[in-house]
Amino acid sequence: MWRFMEIIKGVFIGVTFGMGLSIAISFGFMLFAQMLAGGTTSLFGEAWLYFATIVSFALTFLILGIYFVSREKPTNKNLWLISFVSAFSVTLYSGTIGALFGEYIVRGGLRTYTDVLVWGTIYAFIFLPFSTPLARWLIHIFQMLLKRLNISY
Question: Where along the chain do its domains lie?
Fold first, then answer.
């Protein structure tokens, strides 16, 4: 019973951490992109980006919460593999299905879904060298949070 409660805590913390991280990264990305485009027009930017990333981040960190609570300390090699898979899945989902769902929720239609699926997949592969180290760093922060809360090993 005690182990089950630790897993539930890991799930709750993972989903909360993932959703918060999704909002923070989407906000930072939009501010950076707006400044490159000539200045900020809106503080919160486009709502579809929040919808596109929140599910993938929450689901990824939910799974990582279960994994880190129920396993012994993973090796560095396993952490890099987990980071690679997490970065690819988050980027692929956010760039394809998440973008389509976000577009549909915000604008009410899907006009260019084939282009989104093709370019979202290309985008996921091209940005792997950047997204994998970022994912490794974020997963390390998540591990430290779990250790600080005495849930993980």
Answer: 2-148
Please say whether the beta carbons of 73 and 147 come within 8 A. Answer: no
Rounded to an integer, what distance in angstroms lies between the CA atom of residue 6 and that of residue 137?
23
Q: What is the pLDDT of residues 95-139, one digit of tens each?
A: 888 888 877 877 777 666 777 888 889 999 999 999 999 999 999
| pLDDT tens by residue, 20-79 | 999 998 888 888 888 888 777 766 667 777 888 889 999 999 999 999 988 888 899 999
Please list, in sequence order, all residues whose beta carbon lies within 8 angstroms of the beta carbon of residue 25, skipping any fewer than 6 positions away: 53, 57
Sign (positive or negative) of CA dihedral 112, 117, 120, 122 = negative
User: What single string gives the DSSP state of each residue in 7-29?
Assistant: HHHHHHHHHHHHHHHHHHHHHHH
Tell the residue number behind the tokens 């849930």, with chain if given: 151
Query: With contact defined as beta carbons under 8 Å apart, do 88 and 65 qualify?
Result: no
Q: How far is CA 59 from CA 51, 82, 118, in A?
A: 13, 14, 23
Which pLDDT score, from 0 to 100, does residue 122 have? 93
CATH class of residue range 2-148: mainly alpha
Residues 89, 136: contact at Cβ < 8 Å?
no
